Amino acid sequence: MPLILGANSVSGYTIKNSLRFNSGSSDYLSRTLSTNGNKRTFTLSCWLKRSSLSAEQRILMAYTGGGAQEWLPQISSANKIKLSGDTGLGYNFDLDSDALFRDVSAWYHIVVAVDTTQATSSNRIILYVNGTQQTLTGSYPSQNFDFVYMNTSGSTLLIGGRTSPSGLYLNGYLSEMFFIDGQALTPSSFGQTDTDTGIWIPKAYTGTYGTNGFYLQFKNSASLGTDSSGNGNT
Question: Structural domains in the chain?
Answer without folding.
Answer: 3-216 (2.60.120.200)
